[in-house]
Amino acid sequence: MGLADMETFLRTTKRGVIVVLNDSAYGAELHQYASKGLDPTAMLIDEVDFAAIGRAMGSDGIKVRSLSDLAVLSDWLATHEQGVFVLDVAISQKVIVEFMSASLAAAR
Prior knowledge:
Number of domains: 1
Number of helices: 5
Helix content: 25-40%
CATH class: Alpha Beta
């Protein structure tokens, strides 16, 4: 999703949630290429708060770092108000999905 897609979603959706799994990296590239010895610098990005970007564009939203942060989404869902909520979930760069781990091991 790009910012233009986000703006369209915010403008045209009566009620919805955008979930961003945010590892502050280009995760797939990091796991595929850095594991082969390529310099990961270009694959890492500064932490971006996508919830703040969404709020600037007219949505509600929160950056999630713990399970307790999800209470804000729960409260928003309980209101039944129209609009969009951006849930920016901070995740680890170190966790690799099983199918990618298997393909990385096979490539070695």
